[in-house]
Amino acid sequence: MEPVAQEALSALLYKDLAMALVMGIGAIGPGIGIGLIGAKAMEAIGRNPEATGKIQTYMILSIAFAEAIAIYCLVISLIIKFV
Question: Which residues of 15-36 are buried (b: 16+ CB within 10 A; e: fewer)?
């Protein structure tokens, strides 16, 4: 294989590796965060069932913010792939 072709292949492999790492590592935090949010919300509802509506509203809002971090990682991964 020619050195130029080998360098191009190597660059593509590094881009694919970078994409995988960005998505893999970037999804760990939101995944753990969403799990903790759900667990604590269920615990709070179990202690005070009358506050279910308020707790559920804040829980959904917090999940949306945590999910936004994963979406940012997806965008960065796509930028790495196509640029």
Answer: eeeebeebbeebeeebeebbee
Walk me through the domains of the chain, giving residue ranges and CATH numbers: 27-83 (1.20.20.10)
pLDDT tens string 24-64: 999 999 999 999 999 999 999 999 999 999 999 999 999 99
In 3-state terms, what secondary structure has residue 50? helix
Task: Name the nearest CA neighbour of 33 among 62, 53, 75, 55.
Answer: 62
Whether 69 contacts 23, CB under 8 Å: no
Q: How many of the other CB atoms lie within 10 Å of CB of 74?
A: 15
Predicted local distance difference test score (pLDDT) of residue 12 = 87
Give the percent of the chain with pLDDT over 70: 99
Distance of CA 10 to the CA centre of its chain: 27
